[in-house]
Amino acid sequence: MKRTIRQLALYLWLIAIWQTLSDLKLWPPYLVPTPVSVWEALRFGFSDQTFWVGLTVSMKRIAIGYGLSVVFGIALGFMISSSAFLRDTLGGLVLSLQSLPSICWLPLAVLWFGLTETAILFVVLMGSVLAVTINTESGVAHVPKLYLMAGRNLGASGLRLFWHVMLPASLPHLLAGLKQGWAFAWRSLISGEMIFVSLGLGHLLMMGRDLNDMSQVMAVMALIMAIGQIVDRVVFETLENRIRRKWGVARTA
Q1: Residue 234's CB: how many other CB atoms inside 10 A?
Q2: What's the domain range around 218?
Q3: pTM of the model
Q4: Partner of 128 for a Cys bridge, out of 41, 113, 152, 185, CB 3.0 to 4.6 A?
């Protein structure tokens, strides 16, 4: 509760500064709109269903793209961690690809899949899967050998050793990878939608720019930020709390 109050106070303080700068008329309103005009754009976007449609389309895409990245990323991370050969070869390639901004995959996506839904999902997948893979591999690598020895001495092996020892011990890194992967996937999706002529929040952002409507641009930006905050608080913080209660692991920073 205290954290929510502090964040709310910060946002109100920033809005007050924004309104003060707007009243000083340092910039023309069509370049820097007032908080009231942004709020009106946000309200109008929801009232005429435009934002609802864009939000629905974007959330459907992120659910598919991010879901695939989690499945592939976790599987690939455990594969790399279980083999010295894969760690020395594929692991190095994954680290190299991670340095690429997700937007770099867009030209390949267009060439391979055309201006289609699949191309956007490919960009989302490639923007997220590498972060999940790296953090999964790092989590397994940081499992203390003493835990593994204790598990084997107690009779655990194979799937039981993985489920009861390796997985809970690597959960802090794994959850950090999921959070980072979500952030990368969300950014990749918005970037792809800004370039593709398709429905979605990114497309609404570009429509505002093309119409020289900065109120709509900032309203969509606020909506994108709000979704990121909601997902982090509702989904990932809930997962962290459940993991701490079930496994007794420390909360990730």
Answers
A1: 10
A2: 52-247
A3: 0.80
A4: 185
User: What is d(CA 232, CA 133) in angstroms, rounded to the nearest whole number?
Assistant: 20
* Cα 225–chain centre separation: 11
131 vs 231: CA distance, rounded Å: 18
Residue 68 is predicted with a pLDDT of: 93
Residue 130 lies in a domain: yes
The phi and psi torsions of 185 (rounded to 5 degrees) equal -65, -40
Q: Would you state the pLDDT for residue 52?
A: 92
What's the burial of 230, exposed, middle or buried (CB within 10 Å: 0-12/13-18/19+)? exposed
Q: Helix, strand or coil for residue 157?
A: coil
The confidence band for 198, taking pLDDT boundaries of 50, 70 and 90, is confident
Quick: pLDDT tens for 89-136: 887 888 888 888 888 888 888 888 887 888 889 989 998 998 888 888
- Phi, then psi, of 79 in degrees rounded to 5: -65, -45
Q: What are the backbone angles phi and psi of residue 26, rounded to the nearest 5°?
A: -70, -30
| 68: in domain | yes
- CATH number of the domain to which 207 belongs: 1.10.3720.10
Task: Please identify which residue in the block is written with the tokens 């990114």.
Answer: 202
69-80 pLDDT, tens per residue?
999 998 888 888
